[in-house]
Amino acid sequence: MTERYRLAGRSATEILASLEAAVRDGGLVAGDLVPTVRALATELGVAPGTVASAYKTAVARGLLETRGRLGTRVRARPALATRSTGPAVPEGVVDLASGQPSAALLPRLEAVAVPGGPAAAPGDLVLPALAELGRARLVADGVDATHLTVAGGGLDAIRRVLLARLAPGDAVAVEDPGWPNLLDLLAASGLRALPVRVDDAGPDPRALAGALAEGARAVVVTARAQNPTGARVTPERAARLRTVLAAHPDVLLVEDDHAAELARVPLASLAGVTAAWASVRSLSKPYGPDLRLALVAGDEATVARVEGQLRVGSGWVSTLLQHVAVALWSDPDVARVVATAADTYDERRTALLHALEAAGLPGSGATGLNVWVPVPDEARAVAGLLAAGWAVAPGQRFRQQAGPAVRVTVGDLDPGSAEDLAAALRQAVEGASGGPVTA
């Protein structure tokens, strides 16, 4: 255990409070190992069951995670407000770790005409103009948008859908490697993540069948531009996944289409194959991370439950944001800006993949903003790249059973620098492995 903070308490409640205080105040930080149950019980003079109960609650609240033989540690992003912050990207280093779109490629909101007038509570949860535009876009992609509502962004939408159908302790099949925010959400909601292998064509059907056989009550699938691998569900893979899901009609299917207009490939939707389903389309990646708005199409009962949560909670999603979404989707100049951004990301991602191949390094990134590069040692690869002037994300937060890797966000990558980045990564990898790289 870290020497910066020692846990205290005589009851499970007191031990848990001490643990929360340590994380909140920065005495324990992400990745720190906590004592074994027996070691802490001996130190505090309490029964092992008392410590085990405190740890179990901390895991259920998204504060700790158990990694088998690696012990129990503080989660990378514990579900608790903390005083500690992650390390900033040093000055002069190119930030390819954020996962965010390039600010230079986003539409300029000041150029978008938004109706004025007083901000008042809406009569409907979804503005009619937004519902009309949203339905048209979803239907064009093969999604049944008969029942439609809104949420405060993609992750908020997924959370509301899961909580509308699941109970604490339920298992959710998720992609591995996958979106760490989703893993954090599941942990904080008391839900269990079951890993499903993912390749360039989407989730592996056999792995999904295995997770469903293990008791998964829900499945979350990224339709395209999967984070971190860039995978997209191909039509052929979609047909196989539909066959697997059709054998489990009571499972909740959540389809995450966060990239949408940036993906530049058709949507092979799985929506509707099970009785309970939702297809989520957010605006953050194409139009701006601060636009916390997402459309939720789904079966009638799921959409009604999501709307019920909104009405008894925040009440509604800001009509100001909804008006901005209508203006963005109605402006042909904005559509051209987004199309240019999509082409630019494709160019940058393709340039990096070609440079990696030329350097003898593996990499995947069929769509979207990210490239996933397997490496023998994440820490050394990240450190080596940082020393060479590049910041990338270590893969640990993204994976459950998948092998080590780094994620490179190409949003601000100059295609002319792709070869330099690949060369720096190869040098870092060779230093970690102690010899030549075999792709």
Short recap of the structure:
The chain is of the alpha/beta class and 439 residues long. It has 14 helices and 15 strands. Helix content is 39%, strand content 15%.
Q: What does this entry look like structurally?
A:
By secondary structure, the chain is an alpha/beta fold. 39% of the residues lie in helices and 15% in strands. It is built from 14 helices and 15 strands. It has helices at 12-25, 37-44, 48-60, 128-140, 154-165, 180-188, 205-213, 235-246, 284-287, 300-312, 319-330, 332-358, 378-387, 418-433, and strands spanning 64-66, 72-74, 94-95, 148-151, 171-176, 192-199, 202-203, 216-222, 252-256, 276-282, 294-298, 370-374, 390-391, 393-394, 405-409. Strands 4-11-10-9-8-5-6-7 form an 8-stranded mixed beta sheet, with helices on both faces. The protein has a 3-stranded antiparallel beta sheet with strand order 12-15-14, covered by helices on one side. Helix 1 (12-25) crosses helix 3 and helix 13 (378-387) crosses helix 14 (418-433). The model has no long low-confidence stretch (mean pLDDT 91).
List its traits.
439 residues, alpha/beta, three-stranded antiparallel beta sheet, 14 helices, globular
